[in-house]
């Protein structure tokens, strides 16, 4: 499926609008006590439309190159699509609508940043063997799920501070109970760590020089993130860690993982040009 640059830009604008419309719907529901529509159904509808349009954008890049191109903006768009799908599943099965006011604007920004990316219209040679693509897919799934966990930790932090200071507002009231928020966070972290474990294992298995000069920082930071998240889960299940300690360790692990996935791409492609 090949799109002209004009069609690609129009579709990107549409997807961006739908993501923001979904977030706005939930925000309006939080701020206003009365509404004339079902915000949950509207959010689900927006997610379906956005995911379909976003998939076309990602598939366009894939069909041009017969493989995914992993420059900074394309990788960010692909990760955001996976996050969107995971969030849609979570929204169907659990009360996670309030997360949309943080997650959906991030997804919209990822689409906007990839709109004028010239690699979407240039054929590039891909040297990724099928077994290496398995490693890449596992890595993207792990990063996407742990990104959702990081967003969850942000809301959990706000919720805990509000309860500690005995402050209440409509946003806090719209969030699920604190215990359920923690449960959602640790479910996302647990699944994310499992996927990250398989991603690292496949990397050691399929990549000949995983500590080579061009991969050393990625490997080191990914292992560091794995240790941070694994320590966090161990502390949770054996020592009962809760609260800000959990939030801070989630931030630390995610920062290491973000630098591993996007740090070098950002420096080489954006800063150094």
List the helices and strands and how they pair.
Layout: H1 5-31, H2 39-65, H3 72-93, H4 100-113, H5 130-164, H6 170-174, H7 178-206, H8 216-239, H9 244-271
Written overview of the protein:
With 273 residues, the protein is mainly alpha-helical. It has a domain at 128-271. 77% of the residues lie in helices and 0% in strands. The protein contains nine helices and no strands. It has helices at residues 5-31, 39-65, 72-93, 100-113, 130-164, 170-174, 178-206, 216-239, 244-271. Helix 1 runs antiparallel to helix 4, helix 3 (72-93) runs antiparallel to helix 4 and helix 3 crosses helix 5 (130-164). The radius of gyration is 19 Å and the shape is flat. The model has no long low-confidence stretch (mean pLDDT 82).
What is the compact description of this entry?
The chain is mostly helical and 273 residues long.
Number of strands: 0
Low-confidence stretches: none
- The gyration radius over C-alpha positions equals 19 Å
Overall geometry: flat
Strand content: under 5%
* Spatial gap, N to C terminus: 29 Å
Largest sheet: none
Sketch the topology as an H/E string, one letter per element.
HHHHHHHHH
Q: How would you classify the helix and strand content by structural class?
A: mainly alpha
Average residue pLDDT: 82
Total helical segments: 9
Helical content (DSSP H or I, runs of 4+): over 70%
